[in-house]
Specification:
This protein is an alpha+beta fold and 576 residues long. It has 19 helices and 15 strands.
Length: 576
């Protein structure tokens, strides 16, 4: 491996990390916006004002009016028994004049709209199982062939996304999946006794099990949705109804065309409802675990896995071939290190200040990029600031500089105006966000530059405001500035990046808010959640496949998959 290739490899790792930082930012920004909207809409509901943009089903509206007028319970006729397990709907008095009417669903409080869908989906699933066969049984649920095909086709698209992501990040498809072949026409590289169709089937059963378990646990623990979460779920699955209407077909006809004959609109909607409940339960349960750990437990985790939580600040430069020892020995400072790297790299466009930087890096990252020998030396407790050495390996040598030995990172407090470019933004949306950010920055530059003014401007603009951030939070340009050791309270800077525009006002370091604690809580909660899930699934959700029905489902799915592949091939040919 030559010098340029090694440096390029390090640069790609840095760029990948920067992309991950940006995605973390996007996720947090979206979460903040959703929370703000939830509070706003719930407040509107409590004040008995209509909430704009929330779809109200006609049946629910009629029930709500009936309850308000009569002041008594409305009991809906029971669905015919003997065909499927359904839940009688006994509505609650709508004393708050909410846009949704609620009823009991197996001990949990749920909007009537959801219960009606789940009840009808149970009947539809029973009918589909009778007509097409049961593909798999999970716990006490029988999954019809059309339902299995729906999950299977979605799994196919998940794999396509995985392939596209691999190509965009690595420049080639390293997944082992051939997009020019059907799933059952190709072996799975990790286990050649299986085809990709077999893998999809395993993944589908695992996904269904996860959704059913999460939904059932959510109901058992009484998880409830806010009005915004209800509306978001309804809006999400009603997109099928809107699209079908635009094509002049019914939702059932549209779903039969996309997935499989026999799949109904209610069966599709039921999946979306159960998934939404499962995801909320999973989130709440993980948070519950996170909040349960004592400081003693966290300290024990840190002691057992310290290398997973400590960070270093330093520089690494790979040398290809021979080097002049006297030149390396002459390095006395970070500036000397950068000059040495720039002078010895064969490409004049090389920027050692950027490429050699290892800022807030963990041991695993250093080991992945430069090898265990470099990582072991950099993270040794013997290291001191300013230390420089050459580490020789079988392939090449590394010049290594320690700016700050292994330490436990703390968060930084900032106030921010954020205008990130979300993944669904087109050029016009990005330009609009940038224009708004530039206007905000102009107001700030014309102000008295005080903390109070910045807070007010952020509040007026509806931005996220004050927050504690860690070294992996923002796009790397922003992070590097926030974590610069020269940073002091009152510093500010406007950033125009590929991921969006940001104006940051620095408040200071939170010396009692350690990044490792947050990371440890996440790690431990994931472990505890997985253990809980495994134990519940093992006892309550055994699965049994009907191989003959699954084969039929895979064969029918192939028709839809082949049609999709041909459409994509035609589009690609037309684009050329």
């Amino acid at each position: 491996m030559n010098k340029k290739k090694a440096a390029d490899n390090a640069k790609k790792i840095a760029e990948k990390k920067a992309k991950a930082n940006a995605e973390s930012l996007k996720a947090k920004q979206k979460e903040e916006k959703i929370k703000a909207k939830v509070q706003e809409k719930e407040a509107a509901s409590q004040s008995k004002k209509p909430v704009k943009g929330i779809i109200i089903a006609a049946a629910a509206l009629v029930l709500a009016v009936a309850v308000i007028l009569t002041g008594i319970f409305v009991v809906k006729p029971k669905i015919e028994s003997g065909k499927a397990t359904t839940v009688p709907i006994v509505t609650e008095p709508n004393t708050n004049k909410s846009q949704y009417t609620y009823a009991d669903y197996k001990g949990a409080r749920m909007p009537v709209e959801f219960i009606e869908v789940l009840n009808q989906a149970a009947l539809d699933s029973k009918a589909a199982s009778k007509e097409y066969g049961v593909a798999v049984t999970i716990g006490d649920r029988e999954i019809s062939m059309p339902e299995f095909e729906m999950y299977y086709y979605d799994e196919f698209h998940v794999q396509l996304n995985t392939v596209n992501t691999a190509i965009s990040e690595k420049g080639y498809n390293g997944t082992g999946y051939d997009t020019s072949k059907l799933p059952d026409e190709q072996k799975y590289p990790a286990d050649t006794s299986m085809t990709w169709a077999d893998v999809f089937t395993v993944n589908v059963i695992n996904q269904m099990t996860s959704i059913f378990e999460g939904f059932d646990q959510a109901i058992k623990e009484g998880v409830e949705f806010s009005v915004i979460e209800i509306a978001a779920t309804i809006n999400h699955y009603e997109r099928i109804k809107s699209y079908a209407s635009s094509k002049g077909v019914t939702p059932d006809e549209r779903l039969a065309d996309v997935y499989a004959p026999g799949l109904t609109y209610n069966m599709f909607c039921a999946k979306e409802i159960m998934l939404a409940y499962a995801e909320k339960y999973n989130t709440l349960k993980r948070e519950e675990f996170k909040n349960s750990y004592t400081q003693q437990q966290l300290d024990a985790e840190l002691k057992a896995n310290k290398d997973s939580y400590t960070r270093i600040i330093g520089r690494v430069y790979p040398i290809d071939g021979d080097y002049v020892a006297s030149e390396v020995n002459a390095i006395r400072s970070e500036e000397d290190f950068i000059n040495y790297a720039n002078n010895n790299y064969p490409d004049g466009n090389y920027n050692a200040e950027v490429v050699t930087a290892c800022n807030y890096s963990d041991k695993e990252t250093i080991s992945t990029v430069f090898g265990d020998e470099v990582a072991d030396w950099m993270f040794s407790e013997d290291r001191v600031a300013g230390e420089i050495t050459v580490i020789e390996t079988q392939l090449y040598a590394y010049v290594v500089y320690i700016k700050k030995p292994a330490f436990l990172n703390t968060s930084r407090e900032i106030i921010s105006y954020d205008a990130p470019y979300y993944s669904d933004y087109d050029d016009a949306a990005k330009q609009n966000a940038k224009t708004e950010a530039e206007a905000f920055n102009k107001k700030w530059e014309e102000s008295d530059k005080s903390e109070q003014t910045f807070r007010k401007l952020c509040s007026d603009a509806g931005s996220t405001g004050e927050s504690a951030v860690f070294s992996t939070y923002y796009y790397y340009q922003v992070t590097d500035w926030i974590y610069d050791e020269s940073r002091k309270k009152g510093d500010y800077k406007y950033f125009d990046t590929e991921e969006g525009c940001f104006l940051i006002y620095y408040l200071g370091e939170n010396t009692d808010d350690y990044e490792w604690m947050s990371t440890a809580k996440t790690k431990l909660s994931n472990q505890d959640f997985q253990n809980l899930y495994d134990s519940i699934v093992k006892s309550d959700y055994p699965s049994k496949e009907n191989s003959s029905v699954i084969k039929k489902a895979q064969s029918r799915a192939n028709v839809v998959i082949k049609q999709y592949m041909e459409e994509q091939s035609s589009k690609a040919a037309a684009a050329q």
